[in-house]
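Backbones bend. Our protein:
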Amino acid sequence: MTAPPASVVAVHRSGSHSFSKFAEDAVTLVPGIGVQGDAHSGTTVQHRSRVARDPSQPNLRQVHLLHAELFDELMEAGFPVWPGELGENLTTRGVDLLALATGTRLHLGESAVVEVTGLRNPCSQIDKFQRGLTAAVLDRDAAGNLVRKAGVMAVVLAGGQVRPGDVIRIEAPAGPLRALEPV
């Protein structure tokens, strides 16, 4: 039996700098900007901590993608967390987001394309949402290196609407592969 194709499970946005985002029937991705109507969209950084450091930095965090498998894992560990509550724009299933290389392109829906820029670095807001949750979205690999499981960040290359149920097509970057690092 073959595995179902990688797909979008849910889409979210929030016009305010809230921690969680709200479920939508569809979101519109805008090239070079992000999710239309989302507080984190823009050509330059929009996350408050990054704006405070240097508001002219390019926004490498236009779209936050998080794998539904993490929610399954968190639920099993006793953390009732649902898609959108960790602030992601797109919840996916069937794609190992954390194993993607920097520069991987994800084709979403009929026309949207995002390019993965790096890992989301879990912040203190996660523990404010649920005590102990930060530790649950961090791990160590066999070599003792820190593993950040809170999803990946991307920029929008081609716009379009993205809906739950949309298939995700993965396009590996050309040249040598670079492992994801926090952005």
